[in-house]
Design goal:
25% strand, binds S-adenosylmethionine, Rossmann fold, globular
């Protein structure tokens, strides 16, 4: 049983302790959008946080659905959308149980996986495989957080380190096509890096 609950995250929102938050959409998302690697479609943003990426998607005509189980996140995302006079669906739900009525063309995964206890990672990856339609895409940023203690076997987080071998095991070739190229390394405001890549659902 994980100690990570909506209350854990709500305290962060209440106390303004949101070190993961860029205060703007991720530069990697802007690269994907500006290069047309990601074009308007029906897309899910699990763990949407304060909603910066939601606003960017809505602005550009995506049919975007944000899913977050923390009341503060849902409230802030809705407020940010309203501030920009944009409409998008924001669902207050646990990503481990959320079941969309209609599948998605794509998922944008940014720091939701690393916010989950690894005990739930298999369940989460199975959810994403269910949400994305065949030939759909998973745009993902795998958080790299190698802390002292990892080599001694300590499980530390959130954010939990998304080791690339573990990611291959979770998003394996039975369900996902990986690109040949190495991921793009994206600096994160926390001082760590993310590995950005796009997987295709088989
Ligand atoms: C580290 S924050 C990242 C927020 C946003 N993606 C960003 O990059 O700024 C993690 C977010 O995931 C949400 N979250 C964590 N576990 C969740 C779960 N099981 N179901 C839904 N949301 C969850 C938290 O409420 C929080 O808003």
């Amino acid at each position: 049983m994980s100690a990570l609950t909506p209350n854990f995250w709500q305290e962060h929102f209440d106390q303004g302790r949101t070190p993961w938050d860029r205060g703007a959409p991720s530069p990697q998302l802007l690269d994907w959008l500006n290069s047309k690697a990601l074009t308007p479609c029906r897309i899910a943003v699990p763990g949407c946080g304060k909603g910066w990426e939601m606003v960017e998607f809505a602005k550009r005509g995506f049919d975007v659905v944000g899913i977050d189980y923390t009341a503060g996140a849902v409230k802030e995302t809705k407020a940010l959308l309203a501030q920009h006079a944009l409409k998008a669906e924001v669902v207050k739900a646990d990503v481990l149980v959320y079941a969309p009525e209609q599948s998605f063309d794509a998922v944008y995964e940014q720091t939701c996986l690393c916010a989950l206890d690894p005990d739930n990672w298999i369940a989460y990856s199975e959810q994403l495989a269910r949400w994305v339609r065949p030939s759909g895409r998973l745009y993902v940023l795998f958080m790299q957080v190698e802390r002292p203690g990892a080599r001694e076997g300590l499980k530390q987080g959130p954010p939990f380190h998304c080791d690339i071998n573990a990611m291959h095991a979770l998003f394996n070739s039975q369900h996902w096509q990986w690109p040949d190229a190495l991921p793009t390394v994206v600096p994160h405001p926390s001082g760590w890096n993310e590995l950005a890549l796009c997987l295709q659902r088989k």
